[in-house]
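Narrative of activities, Objective 1.

The group set out to show that a structural description can be obtained from nothing but a protein's sequence at a throughput compatible with the screening campaign. Below is one input-output pair from the validation batch, recorded exactly as produced.
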Amino acid sequence: QVQLVESGGGLVQAGGSLRLSCAASGRTFSSYTIGWFRQRPGKEREFVARIKWSDGNTLYTGSVKGRFTISRENGKNTVDLQMNNLKPEDTALYYCAARQDDSGRFAYWGQGTQVTVSS
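Output recorded for this entry:
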């Protein structure tokens, strides 16, 4: 069974940085894609970024391009989200999720980690 555990959330001032980490276990993830999603207060959950484990190919939503970087560390089975120049509108519960590369659906989800950006 795939398990995903997020860490690294917290409170930061606008303009600051945080690094989120997603520890993945239960599978060999070479044929998986790992994504980060967030749910802002009063909003639907939305896609933030994803990385394809096999080749490191990445994709970002427009509002975080140039500020967030997703990366994987094969030896540790972790996927990190480096978040720089944080804005109050980045305040959200951040989740990591996993899907097999031949599936369109993220089937596995972590419990989330809270990020709060103060102005």
